[in-house]
Amino acid sequence: MRLDKYTLRGQEAIQSGIELAEKNQHQQVEPEHLLVAMLEQPEGIVRPILGKLGANVAVILNDTQAAVARFPRVQGGQTYFSNRMTQVFTASQTGR
Q: Rounded CA gap, 50 and 86, in Å?
């Protein structure tokens, strides 16, 4: 995957998602890691968009953080993108 295909904020969110997975000892980076990272971006666009749609951003963040906390922990090993995360990247690049 080439990060240069994404905006600076997108690159920052991806990196933050990876760091969140590593911090929680998750071997796979999942879409939920990325969503938490995007929701926590102070200058990001995800929170305002969800807010305009009438979504309760605090509830979404809390529920997503709870989902991340349930992922299995692994000691050692290399962190990698899960199949679901790879599908998200593919969809973002192809529009599917």
A: 23
